[in-house]
Amino acid sequence: MNIEQTKDYELIAKLNKPVHDLHCSLYPKYFREYNFEDVKDLFKQLMKNRDFIFLLVKEDKEALGYAWIERRHYPENVFNKEYMSIYVHQISIVQSERNKGYGTFLMEEIYRFATTQAIDLVELDYWVDNKIAKEFYKKQNFVKYREFVYKQLPPPSDL
Length: 159
Description:
Layout: E1 2-5, H1 9-26, H2 36-46, E2 52-59, E3 62-74, E4 83-93, H3 102-116, E5 122-124, H4 131-139
Parallel strand pairs: 4-5
Antiparallel strand pairs: 1-2, 2-3, 3-4
Helix pairs in contact: 1-2
Protein name: N-acetyltransferase domain-containing protein
Pfam families: Acetyltransf_1
């Protein structure tokens, strides 16, 4: 098992399908159906940002999953002190390879990467109905420090 950084946006787009399909099934109101060409184009653009890092987890040269992380800088302002974090946008492991330690291996690499960048905070969020993510990050000892809430308003009435 090994991890490497990649700029292969086509491979990341293919590996993105399971996580996107999960989001689409949980929240069809907010997620469009997966479209490889559109997703590929998006990742091609995202990879131009030097603060976005894509990590591949491989076994015997076969890509089994990825993590999309970001180096985030929060500048000081009148409310907050300046700090940096590594933000985990997505982790996706191919369905047939889940529960074999690949996600944990990716997270350990993310922690190592943060340390080499002198960053001591790893942040992420996940959809509340994504029980797999909730349990995974609980095992990784992530703790809640903010809650993101919403209220769905009724559609405006026609006048």
